[in-house]
Amino acid sequence: MRISMILKLMCVIFLLLSVLNGISVYFLQKDIKQERLSLQRQVEFKQLGIDLADASDYLTNEARRYVQFGEKEYLDNYWKEVNETKTRDHIVMKLKELKAPQAELDLIEKAKQNSDVLVKTEDEAMKAVASQDFDRARKLMFDKNYDDNKKIIRDPIDAFQTKMNARAEQEVIQARQRASSMLNLAVSLLIITFLTFFAMLYLIIVRLKPLKMVNEKIKELASQSGDLTTRLSVTSKDEIGEIASSLNAMLDSLLVMVLDISQASKHVFQSSEKLTYNTKETATATVEIARSIEGIQQGATASVQNTLDGARSIEEMAKGVQRIAESANELSESAGDTESEAVEGFGHMEQAQHQMHSIDDSLKSSLNIVTKLSERSSHIEKIVGAIMEIANQTNLLSLNASIEAARAGEHGKGFSVVASEIRKLAEGSASSASEISDLLKQIRNDSTETVKAMQRVSEEVVLGNQKVLYARDSFQKILHSAKGIAVQIQELSAVSEQMAAGSEEISASVAEMAHVSQQSLNGVKIVNDKTIIQTNLVKEVSSLSDSLSQEAEKMERIIQKFKVM
């Protein structure tokens, strides 16, 4: 699977888990709030039951105080409770607001109906007090019949309190169970999230591990001491596998190019050596021709001045002409070989130039691949930043959960411990994401160094191309010089043939010796001038051959930096 697809899948999974964690935390907070509300309702219900019982006791106490002491204050308090405060009515309204079951309200109504007898007794006692019959009033309020009627009223109230407290307790238990279930779900989702996160980190590290081998191989090539025979192992079909395959293909092309350049360099070196040897032979022959021409010139001069010595001069001239013809033939053959070697060396230089261009193209392709790798690393670093942001949000949620647990008091201690563990896991996740970010920064730095190294290699290739162009121009000059030498040698051969014909004519007729000697003298001067030109050309060819040999040796030293066998 491609790394980009893996990263997209990881983002989707992590986003889904984050949404589920957010939903679970939301419902957890809602259940905790419901539990707190249930506790609050339980307290309110208990307080309402207590207030209801206290209101009944309050009326009884005020009525008994009034019949005991006869003070109007207690009577006023009694009727104020009955007519104005109406505690029982307010409690019933509050219970209805809290949506108490009808069965509990029926118990209160039953207590109210049972209180009619008690109210009648209290009314009779108050009338007795008004008529100053305190004994009868006290008997009515403190006898066993009043207590029995009081108990009849308290029984429904006590039943109401018992049923109400049981229901409120059940609501608290159910709310607590829901909160506990949601807490377990939230913890399970967080554990799954962190396990998934660490699995993603491990997968990223495993997937990016081959980049180190690719980087080391490129650095080895950039240092100009690379081994062109080794290849990277391609074990995946993702972007890293494509980079390794492209690098292997580039190494194959580079190996073939280096081998071809090496062979061409050796051939150029051999050709330059042979050219140097032929040039030295040509220089020797030219020196001999110059000497022979000098002798011919002297003989021709002597022949003009002294016809009596003509026979001897003719013989010497014939020998000189013969040597000239032989040297001219040898020189013609050497010039032909020189021209052929120059043509062949020129072809090799053009081939080397094409190979250097191919190397430059391959380096540019590799540079683009490494640049894309740096961009992918930047993308991965953004994803790691998003992961760190999610870890920080998780840490914030755990802090909020700790605060809510602290507010819950004793019931939130367990949740506080879980929130603390979640915060530790979030901090660990942030730390791991930071380490991955540092690793990606190091990879980007290595990629940058690799790009710089490949640029240096490209500069070396450009320099090598310039050297090849220089050698190509040198070979072209050698080729032109060799062609000029061949033309001059042909002219020299023609002159030699003319001199041989003249020697035969001199032998046939001594009378024409002076005329022929004059012509020979003129021809010798022309040949002497051509020989001087030829000598200069031979020296130039020798210098170019030495320069070509040095360039070939330099190219061979550059190629030997790479391991190709």
Describe the structure.
This protein has 565 residues and is mainly α. The chain folds into 2 domains: 31-179, Four Helix Bundle (Hemerythrin (Met), subunit A) (Up-down Bundle); 210-222 and 261-559, Methyl-accepting chemotaxis protein (Helix Hairpins, Orthogonal Bundle). 92% of the residues lie in helices and 0% in strands. It is rod-shaped and about 205 Å long.
In short:
The chain is an all-alpha fold and 565 residues long. The protein has eleven helices and no strands. The chain folds into two domains: 31-179, Four Helix Bundle (Hemerythrin (Met), subunit A) (Up-down Bundle), CATH 1.20.120; 210-222 and 261-559, Methyl-accepting chemotaxis protein (Helix Hairpins, Orthogonal Bundle).
List the defining traits of the structure above.
Four Helix Bundle (Hemerythrin (Met), subunit A); 565 residues; rod-shaped; Helix Hairpins; mainly alpha; MCPsignal_dom; Chemotax_Me-accpt_rcpt
CATH superfamily of the largest domain: Methyl-accepting chemotaxis protein
Overall number of strands: 0
Low-confidence regions: none
Described by strand count, sense and barrel closure, the largest sheet is: none
Number of helical regions: 11
Return the CATH topology of the largest domain. Answer: Helix Hairpins
Q: Could you give the distance between the termini? A: 35 Å
The count of domains is 2
**Average predicted local confidence, pLDDT:** 75
CATH architecture of the largest domain: Orthogonal Bundle
Which geometry do the CA atoms define?
rod-shaped
Structural class: mainly alpha
Report the C-alpha radius of gyration, rounded.
60 Å
